[in-house]
Amino acid sequence: MYSLGFPRLYLQGYGIFDRIGDEVKRFGAHPLVVADAFVQNLLGERIETSFSKAGIKCEMLQFAGECSPSQIDFLTSRAKEFGSDVLVAVGGGKTLDVTKGMALNLGLPVVIAPTLASNDAPTSRVIVTYSDEGEWLGPRFLTLNPDCIFVDSQIISQAPARFFASGIADALATYYEAQQCLKKGADNFYNGKQTVTSQAIARICHETIWQYGKEAYDAVCRKECTESVEKVIEANILLSGVGFEGCGVAAAHGIGLSLSVLTPLYGDAKGLLHGEEVALGILAQFVLEGRTQEEIEKVQDFLISLNLPVSFEQAGIAEFSPEKVHLVAEASCKPKSRIWNMAVPVSVELVEHALNTVARLGRERLSRFN
Ligand SMILES: [Zn+2]
């Protein structure tokens, strides 16, 4: 079987946030908006004005903390009390995921309004859950993709550029991982093979990031929303999101996300964004693939130009000792890891070698810049 899923509606534009009421009205008459305190402060008034202009009353629910099963269940019970018939998530990754968790519990449509373009979460079915203490619990899955993705590019371009860069790294991984999954014949996130469309989406994502990524990042550093920024927002959110689910992921995610095993043990890699982990994962994947130093340097230079990490020191890992390298490699090669979607040989030893190579090449590359 070949398979590919999409959100039902994708909307993106400068300053469109004031139209959120009208757009949400397509999906229900009793919306519940979930946002954290920061976003409510920033956008609460605009949200209420927009819904009242659209002639419907919205309830607002403040979310704080983790996307944990207990938070999801608590917010679900509140949504039931309100009698909500559509959920609207406004904010970053955890807010989006907790709202998707509620939509899964209640079987309601969900509108996703991301305030950052920092990763693949908005369009995706994946819900990443943690314990209330912040320990990773693994994914849950919405039955289908979110119903509507509502992206105000003005808001995205005014957020700190580090988030935008992280989204670019996550989007950069999509095509490289898709290629490995295709060669391996691995299943995508719909338990099927890549369609021609999935492959085309991954390819366009790749082209857009390479062509406009740096220019767009520089514009976001200046808080400007140029044509390049619009293109890269679409790549970060839509192309990368639909692309990774329709193609599958591999070592860039398998290795990158395993860096977090060092956090509870050593306090390393703390506060690293998803895309920053993936940036290092791409480099490690390239080594596993046996790519040339020239190809690796091209990606290093691109990441450096976006202030993304190319060395483990930059990722907040004080001293990447053989023990730490081994722990990360072991976590990367767990039975359920996406690393097994790689079409080249993979083992703990090979991943250790890849990590050590990335460490060495990173140090060498950065010493040339300093
Ligand atoms: Zn990702």
Description of the molecule:
The model has no long low-confidence stretch (mean pLDDT 95). The radius of gyration is 20 Å and the shape is globular. Helix 13 crosses helix 14. It has a 6-stranded parallel β-sheet. A two-stranded antiparallel ribbon has the order 6-7. Helices cover 54% and strands 11% of the residues. The chain has 14 helices and 8 strands. It has 2 domains: 149 residues, 3-Layer(aba) Sandwich (Rossmann fold), CATH 3.40.50; 209 residues, Dehydroquinate synthase-like - alpha domain (Dehydroquinate synthase-like, alpha domain). The chain has 370 residues and is an alpha/beta fold. The site of zinc ion (ZN) has 6 residues, from helix 11.
Structural category: alpha/beta
Strand content: 5-15%
SSE pattern: EHEHEHEHEEEEHHHHHHHHHH
The second-level CATH architecture of the largest domain is: Up-down Bundle
Q: What's the CATH topology label of the largest domain?
A: Dehydroquinate synthase-like, alpha domain
What value does the average pLDDT take? 95
Low-confidence stretches: none
Number of spatially distinct domains? 2
The largest pleated sheet is described as: 6 strands, parallel
Strand adjacency order, main sheet: 1-8-5-4-2-3
Number of strands: 8
What is the global morphology? globular
Distance between the termini: 51 Å
Fraction of helical residues:
40-55%
What are the distinct ligands in this entry?
A: zinc ion
Tally of DSSP helical segments: 14
The CATH homologous superfamily of the largest domain:
Dehydroquinate synthase-like - alpha domain
Our Rg estimate from Cα atoms comes to 20 Å
